[in-house]
Write a structure and sequence with these properties.
With 299 residues, the protein is mainly β. 0% of the residues lie in helices and 53% in strands. The strands form 6 sheets. It has a 5-stranded mixed beta sheet with strand order 9-8-7-6-25, with no helix packed on it. A hairpin with a 4-residue loop joins strand 8 and strand 9.
């Protein structure tokens, strides 16, 4: 199927990640892990603004408080108000940092923030180190700050998505080349019944994902030069070729949620990939879902 793909912002990210769409601002936030950046893309003006942080920035989440974001750094969570650049510690600090660091994270439908960790492969100067198996943990941080461990012994934690009906949670381990599905209990914010959902695909390894309103998972393939569109039954519906090798994460945006914004990485790129590290935009037929928000429900 032919799709309309454009380079929205040739920002040259070392490792673009953490894409989240703010419908209130009609803007996309995303990070560059290795340069310690958060970018903001304004859809109307097609302009990019960038902020610098003191350590790797790995994920961004909307919160119930409009204008305040939850930001996952390598070692901890902070609250951040982009309009004024105010920053405050959230309270969660990653055990074992800096040997390990946080990676992909996203809010669930109940307002919890789920985030995984991995062996720290970002050196103090932002250069690329080595990842390794067995040191990653999947955490759930409740709106009141309470922390629960749900999985241990992971390689690189990636892909955190919930099905449109809120009953299934998807989570991946990049080094294992596996994405898992779990039963999700929204009233308890709990997962159970782990099973293999999509594994062994030969094109790259699973990085971040987004899910559309029909329940198809759009999985970015690091090293594979494509996005795997996976049906709710775990079958491959489509492999969408991309113009660069390392596809990192995606989210749905635009007024109709039919623009898939896609981040990429310049690290480990192939020769001649001048657009590696760019933000791309692709028009799709089925809209995505609104972004979940961290925090207690507004009374």
């Amino acid at each position: 199927m032919a799709r309309s793909l454009t380079c929205a912002a040739p920002v040259g990210d070392r490792c673009g990640e953490g894409a989240v769409w703010s419908a209130a601002e009609a803007a996309l936030y995303w990070t560059d892990i290795n340069r310690f950046f958060v970018h903001r893309y304004d859809e109307a003006t097609r302009s990019v603004r960038t902020w610098l942080f003191d350590e790797p920035v790995v994920a961004v989440s909307l919160t119930r408080d409009e204008g305040r974001l939850l930001v996952a750094l390598g070692s901890k969570l902070i609250y951040w108000w982009p309009e004024t650049d105010r920053r405050e510690d959230h309270g969660f600090a990653l055990p074992g940092a800096p040997r390990v660091r946080l990676n992909d994270g996203r809010a669930d439908p109940a307002g919890n923030f789920w985030v995984g960790s991995m062996k720290n492969n970002v050196l103090p100067d932002g250069e690329l180190g080595e990842a390794g198996p067995g040191e990653g943990v999947l955490y759930r941080i409740a709106p009141d700050g309470g922390v629960t461990v749900w999985r241990e012994g992971l390689g690189i934690s990636n892909t955190l998505c919930w099905s449109p009906d809120g009953r299934t949670f998807y989570f991946g381990d990049t080094l294992a080349n596996e994405i898992y599905a779990y039963d999700y209990d929204m009233t308890k914010g709990a997962i159970s019944g782990e099973r293999r959902f999509f594994a062994g695909f030969a094109r790259g390894a699973p990085d971040g994902s987004a899910i559309d309103s029909a329940g198809f998972l759009w999985n970015c393939r690091f090293g594979g030069g494509c996005i795997a569109r996976i049906a709710p039954d775990g079958s491959l519906a489509e492999a969408i070729d991309m113009p660069v090798t390392n596809i990192t994460t995606c989210t749905f945006g635009g007024q109709d949620l039919k623009t898939l914004y896609i981040t990429t990485a310049g690290v480990l790129a192939g020769p001649g990939e001048r657009l590696a590290g760019s933000l791309f935009a692709m028009r799709v037929e089925v809209p995505g879902l609104p972004e979940n928000r961290y925090g207690a429900a507004v009374q």
